[in-house]
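Fold this sequence, please.
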Amino acid sequence: MSTPTAPSAETLATAWLALLAQTSEIVLLADGRGRLMAASRPAHQLLGLTASSVGQALRPLLGLPPGASLEGSVVLAAGMAATLRCTPLPSRRNKRALLIMLELAHGSPATASAIYREQRLREVTLTITSALEIGQILNHVVRLATDLLGATAGALPLYDQGRDVVIPGSVYNLRMPLTGREQYRGTGLIWRVLDAGRPMIINHYDADPEALPDLVAQGIRSIAAAPVRAGGSVLGILILYDQRPTMQFTASDMALLDAVARQAGVAMQNARLYETAVREGNRRALLYKASVELGAVLNIDHLYATIHRAAARLMPCDICLIALLDSARQEIEYVYLADGPRRWPPHRLPLSRGLLGFVARTGVSLRLVHNDNEIERWFGAEPFSDTEEEPSPGALLAVALNVGERTLGAITVQAHAPDAYSSEDLEALEMLASTAAIAIQNAQLFAKVQELATRDALTGVANRRHFFELARSELERAARYGHPVSLLMIDADHFKVINDTYGHLVGDIVLQAIAGRCRNALREADIVARYGGEEFLALLPETSGEQAVQVAERLRDTVAREPVLSAAGPIRVSVSIGIASYERGAVGQIDQLLDYVDQALYQAKSTGRNQVRAYGPTDTVSMPEP
């Protein structure tokens, strides 16, 4: 009969693992050279051992110097006195395994475990409550809870109560594809914990009917989970995982996990309040900056772009639209349409159509988390582009532009991603819109004042002072680039007779008609002005003397062709026109050109009126080149 062979140290360690996992004693297993091979859970907790402690020299872990005996009294790092009892275990190749038991001088192993856990819980609480960033808190909680309970891995997904969905959070030491995706109701243990609202343990997870295949495939055998709460709301679920067949979570583990989860909830709530305060402070600073910028812009087109930039600093802004209300015509005019870098021309819609028409006529602020095609059809066509394939934005905000009780229009910002805006974003846009509305009103008033300062009140064309400003600039440009420029002086024939016969009110109507016909007959680039009384001037850039004669003849014919309708009946009107030109970019002064054109007009009137005459013997003014 053969003699039984002693097991190897590795086999001993494996055999003792099952026992160590179940015992409540403080037990260590070391090899013959005093290196740690395994430890019971109370020993892990008392000495702060981790998975990386296996293979390390045991004596430093016990606070003993090298070569010290593993028998007798010892004072542990935690300050507790203990007695070591070492039992050699035979193994092959003359190697011995050492079974070491610790007896605490002042209490049982359970008491030691409780002391250790209390100490570690204080450390965990201090660590997680000292962080102010949500992501940092989640990582701390998962790692520290995993270490505190001696688990294999951990996770802390978050719960979105509004959408009733679990979203990815923090994961430690676990490969789990689900952590990168949202989990909807009915998927896994998470929903059981959420619905119950209390901690839960499953020690035979692989046999549970709701076990996730991804976790079972990784060998997860036990799970402990606790809801993370704050202020009566569930913020997430703290979950610990273990892959060891002999490891089972206990009721005390569940209580400890629940304590950590409660502390995590407080820390997360504080962090969110801090983030909200910081975000609100930043928002107020941006709104103040926007108010300063908007107040400094008086050009209306520049102002729209400034409003867009201010909104983009406050929130996602893939699309920005600004529309103004035209109450008289019951229309909404989209004056600013920006889709990313693209700009679309102004567009008018009936007030009853379109998103901003709805907001302008009702004053209702809108926050749509998902703006689909059905919503678009409900509001009516939205003028984003000239194609029907333009995708609808995923989310939008829209608010009215109000100054006191008066509605100027509305503004919308839109994002391609759904659920891009919060209620705080809507509040910020409302505040920006209040400032923007005042800025738009000021810019409109400034434009009106500018128009009154530069326009003739009766006829609506440029007044004499503004004409001279524009003419001097145009003459300088013509001389610089070598371009011709011509000037027309237009005089209403027999205007005194019209005033004496029909009265000054009819005379005013005649002057308004002549000014209107001049604007319609000339180009947009031509500058038309009232010179005084019944005389008008028209400066024609890029126009030679020969071309000016053709323009003047067409204008004369336009004025004379149709009578002016008035309360006194139709009145036949004609004009005499004088022309003076600078050719080939000649350098000349406006006063000199006026003198020449006045002489040409005198010729037209003295030779019978309703005629066109150009200055000079060849009907043009030729100036020497500079």
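Residues 251-296 form the longest helix (46 residues). The chain has 17 helices and 23 strands.
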